Amino acid sequence: MPPILQVTGLAKSFGEIRAVDGISFAIRAGEIHGLLGPNGAGKTTTISMLCGLLRPDAGTVVVAGEDFWLQPAKCKKVLGVVPQEIALYEELTGRENLEFWGRLAGLERGAARIRAGELLGALQLSDRGGDPVKQYSGGMKRRINLGAALMHRPRLLLLDEPTVGIDPQARASVLEFIRGLGAEGTAILYTTHYLEEAESFCHRIGIIDHGRLLAEGTLAELQGRLGGDRLFILEGAFAEVDPAVWPGFLEQFRVIQRTDRQWVVSPLTPRDPSDCLRELLALPIRVENVTLKKPSLNDVFLQLTGRGLRE
């Protein structure tokens, strides 16, 4: 089955700044595809090009088999967008907001009313649908914002950090709803600042930085980039230590993270953990403690970008 979204060589510059630098990826029906990157990495610029807010300098965007920039009207009929900023009318009720965005998407008045009722129930907001949005909590606004993008039953949904700024309970509710959309066959592109979200429910994950897609794959595939299913955490006095002077060390191990008191090290080749442990304890420096752990998405992210997700 062909992908619902196929992005090839997408690029965008603002003056001398290369905001998006030739990224390519695909999303199929029912797949939740995470896109992670630090602030300024190019995530929002990418989504803006996918939904028609920005025209790319190069590359193609194909939605449900149609080139977006050749057939924008056709593509928008199968596309729903949830922007990072809440796009609702505060004076209108939740139901009125849904019906308004449904009419803009092409629904007849009666169909928009019925669909709004369905979504209010699905989003657990039936009892508040008649209240002005200005009286809603942040989590409730996020749910209505999501509902507005779903009025026309899109096959492809672009979500730009839809859970930012809401409490954990509201975030869990939104994530569960999004997971259900994927299970029903909706293709979803999901950007987030929360690594645990991507770990828990994204089928595939792309890591973007400085406009370039550094890696893409399932969580297991990304973890495999670190040399296996184990990382070694070394504790000791490492302030003045340069591992490059140790014969053979950099051919066997990669230092993923380092501070003056702790290193996180991954083997470069699949080996028995006991062999790795023996070699690490034999290093020409006093290692005070060694622990093992499974590599996390955060470890992969730091190894690829050299900085935290929120930097």
Radius of gyration: 23 Å
CATH class of the largest domain: Alpha Beta
- CA-based shape: elongated
Give the spatial strand order of the biggest sheet. Answer: 6-7-8-3-9-10
Structural class: alpha/beta
Overview of this protein structure:
It is a single chain. The protein is an alpha/beta fold and 311 residues long. The protein has 2 domains: 5-222, Rossmann fold; 227-294, Alpha-Beta Plaits. It is 33% helix and 27% strand. It is built from 11 helices and 14 strands. Helix 3 (94-104) crosses helix 4 and helix 3 (94-104) runs parallel beside helix 5. The chain is elongated. It starts with a strand and ends in a 6-residue tail after the last helix.
Top keywords for this entry?
311 residues, 4-stranded antiparallel sheet, Alpha-Beta Plaits, Rossmann fold, 2 domains
